[in-house]
Amino acid sequence: MTQEQLQECIDECLRCVQACNYCYKSCLEEESVDMMKDCIRLDRECADICAFTAQALTQHSTYSTELCRLCADACERCGNECSKHHHSAHCQKCAEACFRCAEVCRKMIA
Amino acid sequence: MTQEQLQECIDECLRCVQACNYCYKSCLEEESVDMMKDCIRLDRECADICAFTAQALTQHSTYSTELCRLCADACERCGNECSKHHHSAHCQKCAEACFRCAEVCRKMIA
Amino acid sequence: MTQEQLQECIDECLRCVQACNYCYKSCLEEESVDMMKDCIRLDRECADICAFTAQALTQHSTYSTELCRLCADACERCGNECSKHHHSAHCQKCAEACFRCAEVCRKMIA
Amino acid sequence: MTQEQLQECIDECLRCVQACNYCYKSCLEEESVDMMKDCIRLDRECADICAFTAQALTQHSTYSTELCRLCADACERCGNECSKHHHSAHCQKCAEACFRCAEVCRKMIA
C-alpha cells in the first residue's frame, strides 16, 4: 500500500461521510419519511463506519484492514438501498459516493 | 468534583446513549415515521453527544466541562421532544433518561 | 441472542472503554512513558473500538456481528500488551476488562 | 453562513484530524516519548473533537455553533503545544493545521 492509496482511501471515506449525512438529513426532510426509513438507518450507519475508518487510517491503526472490509460492506449496502430511490438526487449522489468508497476500500485490502 | 460524581455522570451519559439509540431505532420502526422525524434526529444527536462526553470523561479530558454543558443542552432538547409523544413508551423512557443525564451534567459544571 | 446477552455485551464494552481510557491517561502520567508506548496506542484503539461497538449494539446495528469480532480482536491484543506490565495496577485492571469483554464478544458471535 | 463557508469549515476540520493523528502516531514513535506526552494527549483530543465537529456539520446539526466554539478552543490549545516543538516537522505541520482550523471555526460562529 502506497501513501497515495492510503490518502485516496481516507479522502473517499470522508466524501462518503458527507454524502451519507447529507442524504440522511435530506431524507428526514422529505414529505414522506416512511418510504425512506431504511435509507435513513443505513445512511447513518455508513457515515459512522466511514468516519471511524477514516480516523483509524489517519492513525495507521492496527485494524485498518478489518475496518476497510467493514467499510466496504457498509458502503455497498447503503449504496444499494440509495440507488433504488431514482427520484431523489441526494440518494443518487450518495449511492455514487458509497460505491466509489467501497471500491477504494476493496483495493486497500486486496 | 469527587470520583463518585464523575462516575455517576459517566453512567448517566451511557444510560442516555442507550435510551436515545433504542428510541431512535424504535421510531424508525413505527408505522408513521413522519410524526417522529424530530425525535429521530434529536435522538441520534443526543446519543452521539452523550457517547462523546462519556469517552471524554473517562479520559479526564481537558474539555470535560464544555462537553458536560453541551451534553446537558442536547439532553434537555431531546427530552423535551420525546416527552411530547405520550403514546410512546420508548419516548417516555428516553425523556426520563435525558432529563436525568442533563441534571447530573449540570451538577458537574456547577 | 437474548436481550440479556446483548445487554451484557454492551455493559462489558463500556466497562472496557473506561478501563482502557483510564489506563491510557495513567500511562501518559508515568515517569517513563517510553516503556508504555504500545500500551498507550493499543489502549486508545481498543477504547474507540469498544465505544463504537457499544453504540452499534444499542442501535441493533446491521454490523453488530462484524463489530463484535473486531472488538474481541482489539480487546485481546490490548489485554495481551497490558498484562505484560506486572508492576502497573491500571494495566492489570485494563487487561482483566479487555479479556472479559473479548470473551463476551466472542459469545455474541458464536 | 454560506454553503462555501460550511464546506470550508468541514474541510479544515478534516485536515486537522489528519494532521493531529499523524502527529500523535509520530510522537509515539519518537525516541523520547517523555517530552511529547502533552502533545500526544492534546493531539488525540483535538482530532476527536475535530472529527466530531465535522460529522455534526455535515448533518447540519443543531449544535454546530457550540461545537465550532469547542473545536476552535481545542485547536488553539493543541496548536500552542505543538508549536513549542521546533525540532519536529510533524508538530509544526500540526500546529499550522490547528491554527487554520481554529480560525475558520471562529469565522463560523462570528
Automatic annotation (TrEMBL), chains A, B, C, D:
- InterPro entries, from UniProt? Csp_YhjQ, YHJQ-like
**A Pfam family matched by this chain, by name?**
Csp
Family annotation (PANTHER family): CYTOPLASMIC PROTEIN, CYTOPLASMIC PROTEIN-RELATED
Stated name of the protein = Four-helix bundle copper-binding protein
